[in-house]
Amino acid sequence: MSHLDLSAHRAADISDGIARKEFTAREVAESALARIEALDGDVHSLNQVTPDIAYAAADRIDALVSAGGELPPMAGVPAAFKDNMNLIGTRTTCSSRILANYESAYDCTAVARLINAGVLPLGKCNMDEFAFGSSGETSATGPAKNPWDLGRIPGGSSAGSAAAVAAGLAMVTLGSDTGGSIRQPGAMTGTVALKPTYGRVSRYGCVAFASSLDQIGPFSLTVEDNARVLEAICGKDSMDATSVDRPAEDFVAASRRGVTGMRIAIVRDMLDMEGVTPEVRDSVLAAAARFESMGATIGEVDLPTSQHGISAYYIIAPAEASSNLARFDGIRYGHRAENPVDTLDLYMRTRAEGFGTEAKRRIMLGTYALSAGYYDAYYGQAQKARTLIAREFTTAFEDYDVLLMPTSPQVAWKFGAKSDPLSMYLSDIFTIPVNLAGNCGINVPCGFAEEDGAKLPIGLQIIGDYFAEAKVFAAAGALERDLALDLRSPALSVPVA
Ligand code: GLN
Fold it and tell me: Is 195 a catalytic residue?
């Protein structure tokens, strides 16, 4: 079989082709692994490639085909998982030196559910260390690159999950989003990227960053594939007390139903903020006009409190991270400093050696914010701001079904361009409020900008109320069809065997 161009297909094409015996799941795995072999040296989207696991999954599918059994819904679809999600038989490193050799002891629920749905696990995706970052550059294994221009960042922290899909190395991947880490790399790489409602998807087995914000979600090249993954991974899990007992809906049907009669609002004050490039602003306004022409009513809202989301987030997220990362002490997990003179020396040198600069910055910020005497002034205030942001969204959703904002103020930047942490933090201004409120949001490609000869994707963020993923998929699917921006991949040189 000549190699399948995964980026030219929907997940359903692969499953149907296998069911019709046009090709086998093993051939799909071979094809995907060959493409990774050819291209991922440049893209570095994967920290670990797992051919044995992929072939074992493929053989199970092929055996089902031979036996005439019913295939699972995503049979034979090549997939990969952010390297903060455990999967037995793989390392789970969080792209950190401290976990460089950590072997998964159990399976992350979302990963296990996706594998049960029939996907072929190709590997573990590169990421910012412990998901701290917006560019992929804090990875201890070196950054993943943006397939649209290898000199640019793919966004972060789910850098590799986004880059792998954009490069056609995997059809679907999972990422995690604490302050934008699914949607923002989605925008940078032109991929469809969903942060589900907090509680929609179990986080069991995903290494915690900030537990009140973290949520797992899918990347894909089409809205329909994204919907299919959410159907497979969502729902109550007895291993995660924050997971909510809401059954999967027919999200695939929702992605096809259109926007007739939907009430959609542009978030005016956010769009008019300083730092939003003219190309991004124009594309968001053009998308709103397309929705109107497709039968939606368009209005405007302001979210003035959400503009303070970054300030609240950089108290709450580091506070929770400093607590979650306390367990990496050289005794229970991962790296251990050699020849300690006493226990304190063991803790201190293990952590000094194991964590990178950004992780240390977060641990110090968070520990300070939680320290006696400062707790109310920082953490308490931030929690109040968070409540106000959540109320602001709730009020907006009384009048509108979904809200439109840019996902990111600008397109993908060049490596090293944001070397001070504050300018990096500011790039998440539009995604963070959604994590603070806990509702859902998707990135869907809405155009391109030219910069220094590179064609770079622009992302629209469509935000929904709690558990309103079906509406978000409806709007995203309609725009994708209207703009014909699905299955858009950069022209990487693909050796065809
Ligand atoms: N970029 C944000 C941060 O650095 C968000 C990260 C995330 O969502 N994991 O914290």
Answer: no
Shortest-distance Cα residue to atom 10 of ligand 1: 132
User: What backbone phi and psi angles, to 5 degrees, belong to 450?
Assistant: -100, 130
Q: What is the per-residue pLDDT for 483? A: 94
Question: Quick one: which atom of ligand 1 is closest to the CA of 427?
Answer: 1
61 with 202, same domain: the answer is yes
- Ligand 1 centroid to Cα of residue 358, in Å, is 11
Q: Please answer whether residues 302 and 392 qualify as being in contact, where contact means their C-beta atoms are separated by less than 8 angstroms.
A: no
Is 493 catalytic? The answer is: no
Assess whether 125 and 40 both reside in one domain: yes
The domain of 316 spans 308-384
Among residues 157, 158, 161, 202, the one annotated as catalytic is 157
Verify cis geometry, omega within 30 degrees of 0, for the bond prior to 31.
no
Query: Cα separation of 371 and 140, whole Å?
Result: 29
Q: Which of 181, 162, 182 is nearest to 172 (CA)?
A: 162
Q: Give residues (CB < 6 A) around ligand 1.
A: 131-134, 157, 177-181, 209, 317, 428
Q: Which atom of ligand 1 is nearest to the CA of 358?
A: 4
Pocket test for ligand 1, best of 95, 157, 310, 427 (most atoms within 8 A of CB): 157
Same domain, 412 and 476: yes
pTM over 0.85: yes
Nearest Cα to 434, choosing from 135, 188, 196?
Answer: 196
- What is the mean pLDDT, run by run of 10 residues, along the chain of 497 residues? 67 95 97 96 98 98 97 98 98 98 97 98 98 98 97 98 96 98 98 98 98 98 97 98 95 98 98 94 98 98 96 97 96 94 97 98 96 90 97 98 98 94 90 98 97 95 98 98 81 52
Q: At what angle do helices 11-19 and 51-66 cross, to 10 degrees?
A: 50
Q: Which of 181, 202, 220, 322 is catalytic?
A: 181
Catalytic (active site) residue 181: yes
Q: Are residues 416 and 478 located together in one domain of the fold?
A: yes
